[in-house]
Specification:
about 140 residues, alpha+beta, two-stranded antiparallel ribbon
């Protein structure tokens, strides 16, 4: 199985590559969701209901939907809803994984939280049209 170059995808253990920035959400080569262009601008790949999860989310972040005690749908929704709320407060500044994790104590390992961030970002739920923060010279 060719997972592509490191620049093209991020390897997720047991789930396979997830395209990093092309807007198409795929897991193990299976298309999960794809943003739609409206008037020349990409729109989110799916809508988010804070109280439920979509099929795209269940397929794209399935580690939270496998019945494990430490990774549950409720935990996924808590992470997702927190990241969306943080994005709403930081718009249009890019929401980093570090900032998104700040309010997520006891919600999972750093890598799982990072994968949710990448999924939401690729789906254009967060960081769509974000402006990178400028670093101050030392």
């Amino acid at each position: 199985m060719d997972s592509g170059s490191k620049e093209d995808s991020e390897q997720i253990p047991a789930l396979g590559p997830v395209p990093a920035t092309n807007g198409r959400l795929a897991v193990n080569g299976e298309l999960v969701a794809e943003p739609v262009a409206v008037n020349g601008e990409l729109q989110p790949a799916f809508t988010v209901d804070p109280a439920t999860t979509s099929e795209a989310e269940q397929r794209g972040c399935r580690e939270f939907f496998l019945g494990k005690a430490n990774k549950t749908a409720e935990r996924y929704m808590r992470i997702r809803n927190h990241m969306i709320a943080e994005w709403e407060t930081t718009k249009p500044t890019y929401l980093t994984k570090i900032r998104a994790r700040a309010g997520l104590k006891n919600c999972g390992d750093v890598n799982a939280i990072g994968r949710v961030h990448t999924f939401l970002e690729n789906a254009r739920i967060i960081n769509a049209g974000a402006v990178q923060a400028r670093r101050r010279p030392a």
